[in-house]
Design goal:
By secondary structure, the protein is an alpha+beta fold. It is built from nine helices and 13 strands. Helix 1 crosses helix 2 and helix 2 crosses helix 7.
Length: 354
Amino acid sequence: MRTPKPGDPTTPFPVRPAAVRAGRTVIAVELSRTLVTSLVEDAVTAPSMRNAQPWRFVHRASSGTVELHGDPARAMPREDPEHRAVHLGCGAALFCLRVAAAHRGLRPEVRLLPDPSDPWHLADVSMQAAHHRTDALAALRPALRERHTSKSPFTKEPVPARVLEGLCGAAVLEGCRLVVQGAWHADAVLGLVRVAELFRAAGASAHAELAIRARAETSAGSAVAEPVPSITPGPRAYGGAVAVREVDPLRRLVGRAPARFGRNSRIALLGTAGDTPEEWLNAGQAMQRVLLQATLDGLSTSLVSQPLTRPELRCLTRDPVSATGYVHLAIRLGYGPRGRPTPRRDASEVLRFA
């Protein structure tokens, strides 16, 4: 494919003069506000812990860069004191931004943690003219709005081995490792989930923090105003091995029928070799790539984060025979209801032009 030039009428975007970085020619494109807004609208479909949506975006017109920042106001210091979940959620949003760019014929160039003096400045993304189509990323775009967290039991239909292998390969593309657990370790992880829920139920201070972030409807057709959008609850779980988080265990949620959660899910652990903010961002990108691919494969998914928010349980989540150094996420995979959409902040609330 030929290299586009400034003023070329066949180029779909205005391009800037070529620059040379690391010995190669870089053709940056000029992004309109409308295009940047549409990219961010796709980015905010990403999942995040408690649906906190802890991200902010800044478009620098002078450089054509889209900056990704963590939002301290959306952090949860009791459940996420290291801001690991903030990085995972923002990493997922970053991957959605990459998918959105590829869908529009752009090639996103990402630089993680570009400003050592600002730990909340998580990434810079420059949009460049694509020398070839990035079909692998663009193909995931339909799943951005189809993917929803499932809080329902799954059926007994097994997930084919080839599908699981494809999901493991998706994680590798983002520099991470996805390991699908056998029955014995999956049961161990579910046991840690129950232990984590007991810890959480005993912590009154944690409930005060969750109450302002995860209020369900108080009555039919009536919702509580809140700083963070509500999490969509599923059925109330009873019996068996439960791998979904209760939204607010101290309150009775209206209109929720009980359901038994069996051992029909496959539990996959996503991890990295190290345990640094950069690797948390990579894990967030890998998580989203796996979730989107799973959606296209017809699977339902949810994230199992309870034991991973407690340091004393996180190390026990790791399979002792696995080569993964640190586990950041557990993903529940199976066939069943896809779940319902959860509210998202409008792009105008999270995007600033500078």
